[in-house]
Amino acid sequence: MYFQHWTGDIRYMKLQQNGDWVGGTTSEVVAVDAKNSTPISAVSYSVDGVDAWHIFYIDENNMIKQRSQTNTTLVWVDGEINEAQLQANDADQVGMQACWYGNDYGDSNYLHTPLPSSGNASTEYGMRMWYASDDNTFLQYGWRYGDKNWTAQGQFDNLNGHAGVGCYSWGPGTVTYVMFVNTDNAAEIYWRDTNTSLTSTASHPINKWTKVPFTIPNLEPSTSLGYTNFFYAQSNATYTMNGYNITWAAENTTIVSADSFTVQGEPGIPGTHLSVSAIPDSDGGNNIVVFYQTVGNDITEFTRDLVAGQWTSADVQIPQQ
User: Fold this and answer.
1) How far apart (Å, rounded) are the C-alpha atoms in residues 290 and 275?
2) Pick from 248, 243, 239: which is nearest to 258 by CA?
3) Does 282 reside within a domain?
4) Residue 280: beta bridge partners?
5) Confidence band (pLDDT; 50, 70, 90) for 122?
6) Which InterPro entries does the protein's record reference (predicted)?
7) How far apart (Å, rounded) are the C-alpha atoms in residues 83 and 243?
């Protein structure tokens, strides 16, 4: 788990098998130049036997920054996106998200929780970045595995640049999904199929971002968005976190309403940062995990079985120094 310490540093903590969190001290610092309340996006994968971690954030000059580490060096270094000189919106709340795409999480022996089925595996993989360049515009950049440079790939207009971004592109198949909040504070989902061997049609265009015909309304104006097995956003009415089960099928994407839920626990502060994941449990199953802030200087962890069950919560103890 990566977070911004009260000193401004971006640090990390690790979850042990016994459920305890360790780290978060000055020995686990990733970056020291982040702006206050920066969004943080983490991408990890394993390719060619090398495990890699990439942390993206916004620095004090509103530039998109990347810090990277592999298991061959265990040293944090500046990443390639720094050379692109990408300027984010100068605001207290800024949407930004990086996402791995294609080939699950890399090598086939990389263990992870179940992924939604979306077709055959992609033969190309890398990372994509979406960030707000002003109050209503998001820019997209991409990096293909093995390349040195990030390249411009698109622009999304008429959106809420103070809300977060969600994405799903690491499962099987050639379709990428990205989620934004529009100016009416409703979540929109866009999809793009990069399989150029298919014939483009009016209902299923190829290499074109297309919006699904529904939205998720009544969101907190600066809500974070997150996706791992479920899509999460903050309600504007209650400030609670709602989870939505999405059936990913390009133009036929739908919400399974019966499987939607509210995270049971204290509501988050308005516009809280949000992080979600899914992890194996000791009984051979899987848990979904949601992190957000309920009072402002905390990180609270909410956990539930992947299929169903009651939520439990616990405060993550953050080192003071």
Assistant:
1) 6
2) 243
3) no
4) 286
5) low
6) Fungal_lectin
7) 36
Closest Cα to residue 193, out of 173, 214, 168?
173
- Domain span at residue 154? 2-268
Contact assessment for residue 298 and residue 314, using Cβ atoms and an 8 Å cutoff = no
Is 66 within the bounds of a domain?
Answer: yes
CB 126 within 8 A of CB 67: no
Half-sphere exposure of 16 (CA within 13 A, CB side): 7
Ramachandran sector of residue 20 (left: φ over 0; alpha: ψ -120 to 50; beta: rest): beta
Q: Mind listing the pLDDT tens digit for each residue in 71-96?
A: 999 999 999 999 999 999 999 999 99
**CA separation for the pair 173, 165 (Å, rounded):** 21
Taking phi first (over 0 means left), then psi (-120 to 50 degrees means alpha), and beta for anything else, what does residue 8 get? left
Dihedral of CA atoms 90, 40, 138, 86 in degrees, nearest 10, equals: 70
CA–CA dist 253, 183 (Å, integer): 22
Q: For the whole model, what pTM was predicted?
A: 0.92
In the block, tokens 């909410």 appear at 302
The structure tokens listed for 47 are 């390719």
**Which two three-digit tokens encode residue 93?**
């709340």
d(CA 99, CA 222): 20
Residue 221 lies in a domain: yes
- Helices (H), ranges, 30-170: none
Confidence of residue 125 (pLDDT cuts 50, 70, 90): confident
Angle at 268 between CA 263 and CA 273, to 5 degrees: 100
CATH code for position 89: 2.120.10.70
Q: Compute CA distances 19 → 264, 308, 316, whole Å.
A: 20, 20, 11
184 vs 180: CA distance, rounded Å: 11
| Bridge partners, residue 247, by sequence | 254
d(CA 259, CA 230): 9
* Number of structural domains in the chain: 1
Condensed to tens digits (0 to 9), the pLDDT of residues 209-226 reads: 999 999 999 999 999 999
Please give the Cα distance from 44 to 105 (Å, whole number): 8
